[in-house]
Amino acid sequence: MISPLMFEGINEMPAQLIGLCATGTVSEKDYERVVIPLFEEARRKGRRVRVFIHFDPEFEGFTAAAAWEDVTVGWRYLRLFERCAVVGDQKWIRTGARAVGAMLPCPVRVFGNGERQAAIEWLRAPLKTALDFRVLPDRGVVVVEPQGRLSAGDFDTLEAAVDDWIDTGGGAVNGLVIHAREFPGWEDLGSAWRHIRFLRDHHRQIPRVAFASDSKLAALAPTLAQHFAKAEIERFDWDALDDAIRWASGGRTST
């Protein structure tokens, strides 16, 4: 006889959302039979996920094996996550979700049991980006221009565009230029980590990173970035964008 599930999918969720409800004591079997298949399907289809997790008032906790599975599942599918809404009134759940959310490369918000619809609406809302970017095919350069405080979603959008360009035969990416008069900063710790991870994950595809900025932080960026990426780093003044693009291209001239 199959034991009842303590972690179940929520069928009435809007199509683009993954809904989960936890009750009682969640075990490793719940992850194997419910959670992992949902994420595997999303990965096979190549789509990002927005996750709604409701912790029922009857929720008691995780078994030790389930707690470990929660960690491994999170890391395994981390790049799929676009947004996550945690719904529940338990103080320890709300505190823990906020602490974990601060370290994740995607927005995480906590809602009370009476805010279920608000959580769904937040998950369904269009992503806003403060990161304008363009690809210069003749130079093999991506130019990024921040317009406001950066979020994890901004880097997800940039990463998808760069990866798509590479995967569809757009040619090698010779360099990345970050152009900003003043660096606007990040929305949260997760966004800063996502920025670092973008540079780290793409250092083999992007051999040069140029900072064209008058910001004091930009002056430190080459030193900081060298700890996280093998790319060659150079700094330029904000009004020397053409020079930055020329250097990032490896001296390649436009046609």
What would you note in describing this structure?
The chain is an alpha/beta fold. It folds into two domains: 7-123, Transcription Regulator spoIIAA; 131-248, 2-Layer Sandwich (Transcription Regulator spoIIAA). Helices cover 38% and strands 23% of the residues. It has helices spanning 28-45, 64-76, 91-101, 116-124, 152-167, 189-201, 216-225, 241-248; strands at residues 7-9, 17-22, 25-26, 49-55, 61-62, 81-87, 108-111, 131-136, 141-146, 175-179, 208-212, 232-236. Strands 1-2-4-6-7 form a five-stranded mixed beta sheet, sandwiched between helices. It has a five-stranded mixed beta sheet with strand order 8-9-10-11-12, sandwiched between helices. Strands 3-5 form a two-stranded parallel ribbon. Strand 11, helix 7 (216-225) and strand 12 (232-236) form a beta-alpha-beta unit. It is elongated. 31% of the residues are buried. The model has no long low-confidence stretch (mean pLDDT 77).
How would you summarize what this structure contains?
The protein has 2 domains: 7-123, Transcription Regulator spoIIAA; 131-248, Transcription Regulator spoIIAA (2-Layer Sandwich). 38% of the residues lie in helices and 23% in strands. It has helices at 28-45, 64-76, 91-101, 116-124, 152-167, 189-201, 216-225, 241-248, and strands at 7-9, 17-22, 25-26, 49-55, 61-62, 81-87, 108-111, 131-136, 141-146, 175-179, 208-212, 232-236.
Strand order of the largest sheet: 1-2-4-6-7
Largest sheet: 5 strands, mixed
How many discrete structural domains? 2
Helicity, as a percent range = 25-40%
Rounded to an integer, what's the Rg over CA atoms?
21 Å
Return the structural class.
alpha/beta
